[in-house]
Amino acid sequence: MIAPAPSNTLMEDIVGLCKRRGFIFQSSEIYGGYNGFYDYGPLGVELRNNIKQAWWRDFVQCRDDIEGLDSTIIMHPKIWKASGHVDGFSDPMVDCKESKLRYRADQLFFAPVSVDGETIGYVSVVECIDQQEVAEKAAAEMKRKMAKQGELDTIELKEYTEAKPEQYELIPSPATGKPGSLTEPREFKLMFETKVGSLADDAATAYLRPETAQGIFANYKNIVDTGRVKIPFGIAQIGKAFRNEITPRNFIFRSREFEQMEIEYFISPNADWKTLHREWINTCTDWLVSIGLPREGISEDIHPGDKLAFYSQATTDLMFQFPHGEQELWGIACRSDYDLKQHQEHSGKSMTIFDETTKEKYVPHVIEPSLGVDRTLLAVLSAAYTEDEVPNDKGKVEKRILLKFSPKIAPVKAAIFPLLKNKPELVEVAKRLHKKLQRRWNVFYDASGAIGRRYRRQDEIGTPFGITIDFDTIEKDSTVTLRDRDTCEQRRVTEDELIKFLEEQIDG
Ligand code: GAP
């Protein structure tokens, strides 16, 4: 028996808002969409750029120990052989022979349904926020339909990867609801292949990078030889990565084309890596809070030894409370000297560095904080999405949707409104102020509609400040009204005070 998919209204609200207001669109929508690919519209690209710029400024420009890099997406195929991705980068996959649908075996859960110790069938459920509850409901329904008397035993869900061969035939397919069509799990390679050059033989097979990290390892020697780096130091990169995910889902959370912000932080093999790892976990948590995520929504997941990626010595994920449940946002791994040693062996080039402080020569170890841009954007959207009630222009209380973005990353920083669009004196001052602010920040000019409706349109896209030019501005003291998105409170400020305030709030 199949458990129904849970309803997830917050995710639906966010997806709806993103489409309605031009943040994110399904890729190739005019052809029915393309699963696992998303396009970012005018507001989405601003938000995305602001997240990347904040990361780059805080981790590269404001630190003396981290250098930036921009390497190619397609690199020599030997890099992926050396890194272990050609042989080891795969997910366990299970096929439904009847529906031809595919599932990730580690995201498909099953349990025997037993009544007073007698197994009467199996339930299966695709990973979801309340999978235990939905599996229990499905088991109770099975018992009812089979008219079994007695007590249902506890439902203990297991990953399909743990199913015994004799159970494959008994576990129902999520697609058909019937047992007998699921295959045994097998490994599915996640790297996208392409051909480089005019020869269409195997020698020309190349890969779209599944992580930006290998571009850093492949350039490590260039940076050591040309820069003035001293251990410990880091190399940072922002760029696209591609994975042929078996089940892309949850909007932009797991897609097939996404962007990563990665740092490889090189340390001495004798360094206290556990302490440095802890420091990185704390730094990364603080950074997420600095862009507006609530600290209480972030937790840590320490990977048990048998679940570590093939390159990792220790990994802690920063988890975030997404609309579809608590999930990985930022992976912080200790990759030891695995990658550099692999490249040293496969390329024949030395990856050693001379440590000026200890006068030793060694291949450094590495700590890797690896964050997805798209996942950060979804986290930011989820944390910002709010519904409340405020009075409209006529004093009647109405429901309002707002995005409580931090001014640092908000796509539009302020909106400038002349109180009335048919009063040239108001329009002139508003347009002049708009032009002035536009040179520094992404601001928006809006003259159409009742002022309350104009505020509401900006609240919905997360614009933190509304600036209104009214009759006091032109007739009295040149002050403007400054409205706060979250509290709706308004106060009068001079132009100088306004600019100082915006600088503090946006630039920090
Ligand atoms: N270099 C290490 C690495 O790539 P990972 O845990 O596979 O590690 C790091 O990925 C981060 O990249 C994740 O924490 C997540 O934020 C993001 N990410 C990974 N796969 C993704 C996908 N299919 N869609 C969106 N973001 C993804």
Structural class: alpha+beta
Mean pLDDT: 94
- Quick one: biggest sheet? 7 strands, mixed
CA radius of gyration is 27 Å
What binds here, in terms of ligands, is: glycyl-adenosine-5'-phosphate
Give the distance, in angstroms, between the N- and C-terminal Cα atoms. 54 Å
Strand order of the largest sheet: 3-12-13-19-16-15-14
Helical stretch tally: 14
Oligomer: single chain
User: Overall 3D geometry?
Assistant: globular
Number of strands: 26
How much of the polypeptide forms β-strand, as a percent range?
Answer: 25-35%
Binned, the helix content reads 25-40%
List the uncertain runs: 1-7
Relevant terms:
alpha+beta, binds glycyl-adenosine-5'-phosphate, 508 residues, 7-stranded mixed beta sheet, disordered N terminus, single chain, globular
Any overview of this molecule?
It is a single chain. By secondary structure, the protein is an alpha+beta fold. It has helices at about 10-20, 40-60, 75-85, 85-90, 130-145, 165-170, 215-225, 275-290, 340-345, 375-385, 425-440, 450-460, 470-475, 495-505, and strands spanning about 25, 40, 65-70, 90-95, 100-105, 110-115, 120-125, 160, 185-190, 195, 205, 235-240, 255-265, 300, 315-320, 325-335, 355, 360, 365-370, 385-390, 395-405, 415-420, 445, 465-470, 480-485, 490-495. The strands form eight sheets. Strands 3-12-13-19-16-15-14 form a seven-stranded mixed sheet, with helices on both faces. Helix 11 (about 425-440) links the parallel strand 22 (about 415-420) and strand 23 (about 445). Helix 2 (about 40-60) packs across helix 10 and helix 3 (about 75-85) packs across helix 9. The longest helix is centred in the N-terminal third of the chain and has 20 residues, at about 40-60. It starts with 8 loop residues before the first helix and ends with a helix. Mean pLDDT is about 95; it is low at about 1-5.
